[in-house]
Each structure stands twice: as C-alpha cells, then as structure tokens.
Amino acid sequence: MTELTDLSLCAIRDGVAGGAFSAVEVAGAFNDAVAAAQGALNAFVVTTPEKALAAAEAVDADRAAGRPLGRLAGVPIGMKDLFATKGVQTTAASHILEGFVPPYESTVSQKLWDAGAGMLGKLNLDQFAMGSSNETSYFGNVVSPWRKPGSEAALAPGGSSGGSSAAIAARLCPAATGTDTGGSIRQPAAFTGISGIKPTYGRCSRWGVVAFASSLDQAGPMARTVQDCAVMLEAMAGFDPKDATSLELPVPAWEAGLSADLRGKVVGIPREYRIDGIDADVAASWDAGIAWLKDAGAEVVEISLPHTRYALPTYYIIAPAEASSNLARYDGVRYGLRDLPQGAGLQEMYAATRAAGFGPEVKRRILIGTYVLSAGFYDAYYTQAQKVRALIARDFEEAFKVCDVILTPTAPSAAFALGEKSSDPLEMYLNDVFSVPASLAGLPAMSVPAGLNRDGLPLGLHLIGRPLDEQGVLNAGLAIEQRAAFSARPARWW
Amino acid sequence: MSVTPETVARIAALARIKVTEGELAAMVPELNGILAWVEQLGEVDVSGVAPMTAVIPNTLRLRADVVGAIAETAGDRRDDVLANAPAAEHGFFGVPKVIE
Q1: pLDDT over 80 (residue B69)
Q2: A24, A71, A460, A479: which sits with the fewest CB atoms below 10 Å from its CB?
Q3: Second-level CATH architecture of A4-259
Q4: For chain A, what percent of residues have pLDDT higher than 70?
Q5: In the prediction, which pLDDT does B68 show?
Q6: CATH number for the segment(s) B5-43
C-alpha cells in the first residue's frame, strides 16, 4: 500500500471523504514524518502535532455524524511562520518576534482551518521573508531534502518559503502556505521539484500576514501537483474587508476549470529572458516546455518585455522602501523583543532593540529603504523606481494583447549549496531575475517541475498570466505537468 | 551617488538601528554596491510616465462608521493588546522615562 505521506492533497481529501482511511491516521503519519525529519531539515520553527490531531478528530467526527466536510477536510498542512496563528508563536523567523503569540488568526489561515485543514506546525523561512536560500532565518538554515547524487553537501531549499518547499518535497506535509514578494513561492518550488502559485495581487488577504513589502506581498499555495494548488488556492482566496487591497471578487472554481487542452491559446516566449550565459540545462528545459505546450495545442510566439533588465533594480528599491516603513513597528514597546541597556532612554531602547532583533539582511534592507526614501533622494530613487515599475507593467499589458500566458524558466539555476551565495547580497538578489517582473506587475504566476538537470536536481518552469487569470496559468501548468511527468523525489537520508 | 560612513550612520540613526563601528565599516561597501547597481534605473526614459500607485485597479472602500464593524478592532481587548508587551504595567505599555 502507498504510504499516507506519499499521497497528494486531493488523494487525502478524497480518501478521508470516502472512508479509505481516517483523518486521524493521516495526521498521525505526517506528525511522525515531521518529527523524524526536524533534526536534519529544520523545516519547522515549531511543530503543532496536537493541532493536526485535533483538526483530524473533528473531521472524523463530522464524517461519522454525516455532516458535510470542508474542501480540505482531513488534510494536514504546514503554515509558513509569516501567518499569525492564534495562540501559536509567530516569528517571521526573526529574533525580534521570538515568543510573540498572536491573539488573532490571519484571514488566510482561518480560511484553511474552516475548510477542514489541520496545522502540522509553523514553517521556517528567510527572516521577514527576505532571502532566496533560507539562510537568513534566526532559527537556522532549512536544509533541502535534495542532494546531488554521491554528495552530502547541504543544498538550499530556496527562499523565502524554504521551510514550505523542503517539507513538501520531503513528504512532511502534502501542501503548505507560502508568500511571494519577489519569487518566494516560485523559486523554492523550482528548487525542490514541487509546484506553487502566486495569485494576482489582492486575491488572498494580507490581513495577519507579517508585512514585508505591502504592494508586492501575496500568499499562495505550494504542493506537489497543479490540482492540489488549485484546490488550496480556492480555500485561501477571497475578499476580506480587513485588507484594503483585497479584491472584491468571487473566487473562481479553479479545480473544476482545470483543463490541459490548450488549443486556441497563445503562449508568449519573452526574448529578454534568454539572458547571456543562460545555464544550458535551464535553456533546454525551457525548450522542452515550449514543445510540451505546443503538444497541448497552444500556439507559441516570441514576445518582447523590453524593461525586463530593470525589474530587479526596481524591486530592490521598492521592496526595501516598503520594508523600512513596515518594520518601523518593531520598537520593543508593544510586542516582541526589548533590549533596554542600563540607563537608556526611549530612543536608545529603540535602537538597541532593533540592533539586537534584526538579522544582517533585514538591517541591510531597512537601511537601503531608509536611504531611498530620505529627503533629497526620494525622487531619484523611489519615484523613478515606481515609474519604471509602471513601464514594466505596461510591457506585460502589451504582451498580453498577443498572447494568453507567458512561459519562462523559474530561476536561472537549480538549487545552489548553502553558503555558496550568502557572502554577496547582490549575487543572491540575481536569483529572482525571472520571478520579480511578474511580482512588480501584480500578475498571477506559477512554477511547476520540469525535470532534473545534469546534477540530478530539479528545475522549474514559470508561467505568468493576465491579471485574474489564475485559471490560464494553472491550465498551462497542468499541460506541462502531464508531459514532464516529473516523478523524481529526494532519496531519504534524514 | 555613493554613501560615506557618516551617511550610513545618519541613515541608521533615522532607522533607529544601533550600529557598531565595525558594522558600519562593513555596511558602507555593501550598500554602495547595491546603490551603484540600482542607479542603472536613471538611464530609463520615464518622461510622461506616472509613478505606479496600484498594480491592480482597485477602489478604496469606506467601512461603516460604527464601532465594532470588525470584531478584532471593536475595543474592550486591552488584555489581548498588552499580552505580548515586554513591559506592560498597570494596563499600559511601559517605556523608559521620556521626560527630562
């Protein structure tokens, strides 16, 4: 028999609903997997086996009583530790929020519990979601379950949703929440051979999600199949009056709308993404993706997104600017860490608290953000970046006049080793070169596994859609998933 | 534009982050590397382009002007609000003396 922890989200949902196994059995199997892997992978900041079991018991009781089951009934999931969870420590992987226990629940997590999901624990991440390798967490690196064959070198699970990606790839949970500001769902999904979608900005409520860059932050699901992502996104999305940027629109039936038949669809291939010195395996997987989408019936056309090369520098002005403002709230007064040196006044307490509570990458971004917003520099940096951002969004508008969905690689390489890029912030930033433009334009975008590179490590393909066209993105993702038939998984060494 | 140690010290003071001399020395070249890189945006012709204010067109809503429209902010939650404060005293946030 297939182990319960190998099942997809949909297989668990259907199996629980049909009585093939109980929700409690499922929760128990995943709780055991989480506990066995924690020492080696460090995917969780805290584990909550009792929460997973309690949710499962409620589902089993509902089923026994003949009550209707939620769309995620019996599915235990991981929750990125950026979502406020009532009564469970929420840290954003930072020291400054260590010990913070929210008295409220984020909208997205509440929707998932209402749908019958249970929480296995809070997943590790880059501190305040700032990073691409999960090396900026105060609670230690997450180690990818993937290794190069014959090597024991620890690889990055991607970031910032690296706990989520590692846990799903290692079969510690069938699905998890992620958040994506510049690629934080898609790049870790690509690094670990799983799927993940960032919906259109405004689809998922940001209420109760620790803020990084508010004009970019979006929550989304990560799982091993496109269908699982569709099901979970349906549960997460929806209008929330508590988020001023929440879109007041009904949630489409994405799962029911799934179709890998792309006849009549046009796929755009942006020539600017074929960067100089592109990794040969990444280029080959992109070509394979083009062939798969043609095989699914799509027409493929070359398109131009002329301002692509300016997307990363634009992002690294706007995101730090918003972060410097958002993170001003951590003051050692209302919640979180306080560092009060002997005899210090209020201002010295602020500075000491923030020095002790933020890691180096967070400080770097707050300082960059403070600088680009400061008097005399605001127009040269921030206003200019917001204008270039408008041009980047316009590039996509023009492109979507001639195509329905855009195909690119997710990341410029497969997973790198922990420590390989952490000494040079700029080199780390370049990892988001393919994912950042869609973030700046607020577009739905997804990564799906495409295959393995020469080193036996996963590569992802990236689909970008029109605003609100998650369905088009999911469908193209499904067409690739069916043809790539990605079945590789990390050999268990933990 | 490149930043000097004095500029970084001023920015850190504005951001209320205490930095040591050693941290300051390390940050100056890092920040200069990042700033030199983002300055390529200056070459983009943005004449006639309005700065982006919202990625997805949306209108700002007004909620009903009543207390309790949203349960979490309806008031009467003092103990919840103070529960995570590092130094709550007498039902207030405690801070070091601010009056000279």
Answers
A1: no
A2: A71
A3: Alpha-Beta Complex (3.90)
A4: 100
A5: 81
A6: 1.10.20
Q: How crowded is residue A487: how many other Cβ atoms within 10 Å of its Cβ?
A: 7
Tens-place pLDDT, residues A188-205 = 999 999 999 999 999 999
Best A362, A387, A424, A430 member to test B by mutation, with max B CBs in 10 Å, is A387
Torsion of CA A38, A39, A44, A45, to 10 degrees: 140
Beta carbons of A399 and A406 less than 8 angstroms apart: yes
Phi, psi of A396 (to 5 degrees): -65, -40
Listed by start position, the domains of chain A span 4-259
Would residue A294 show up in a list of annotated catalytic residues for this protein? no
Structure tokens at A171: 């079969």
pTM for this prediction: 0.97
> Which chain B residues have a beta carbon less than 8 Å from that of A395?
none
Three-state SS letters, B34-50: HHHHHHHHHHCCCCCCC
- HEC sequence for chain A: CCCHHHCCHHHHHHHHHHCCCCHHHHHHHHHHHHHHHHHHHCCEEEECHHHHHHHHHHHHHHHHCCCCCCCCCCCEEEEECCECECCECCCCCCCCCCCCCCCCCCHHHHHHHHCCCEEEEEECCCHHHCCCCCCCCCCCCCCCCCCCCCCCCCECCCCCCHHHHHHHHCCCCCEEEEEECCCCCHHHHHHHCCEEEECCCCCCCCCCECCCCCCCCEEEEEECCHHHHHHHHHHHCCCCCCCCCCCCCCCCCCCCCCCCCCCCCEEEEEHHHCCCCCCHHHHHHHHHHHHHHHHCCCEEEEECCCCHHHHHHHHHHHHHHHHHHHHHHCCCCCCCCCCCCCCCCHHHHHHHHHHHHCCHHHHHHHHHHHHHCCCCCHHHHHHHHHHHHHHHHHHHHHHCCCCCEEEEECCCCCCCECCCCCCCHHHHHHHHCCCHHHHHCCCCEEEEEEEECCCCCEEEEEEEECCCCHHHHHHHHHHHHHHHCCCCCCCCCC
Q: Hey, what are A449's tokens? A: 């596994």
Residues of B (17-36) whose Cβ lies below 8 Å from A: 17-19, 27, 30-31, 33-35
Distance CA A354, CA B16 (A): 7
Residue with tokens 């019996």: A74
- pLDDT of res. B58: 83
Confidence of residue B100 (pLDDT cuts 50, 70, 90): low
> Nearest CB to A333: which of B11, B38, B93?
B93
Contact state of A354 with B18 under an 8 Å Cβ cutoff: yes
DSSP-derived 3-state class of residue B21: helix
Give the span between the Cα atoms of A43 and A94, in whole angstroms. 15
B31 with A367: Cβ contact below 8 A: yes
| A107 → chain B, closest CA residue | B72
The answer, for A351 touching chain B at a CB cutoff of 8 Å, is yes
- Residue B92 forms beta bridges with which residues? B89
Alpha-carbon separation of residue A372 from A162, A378, B34 (angstroms): 29, 5, 12
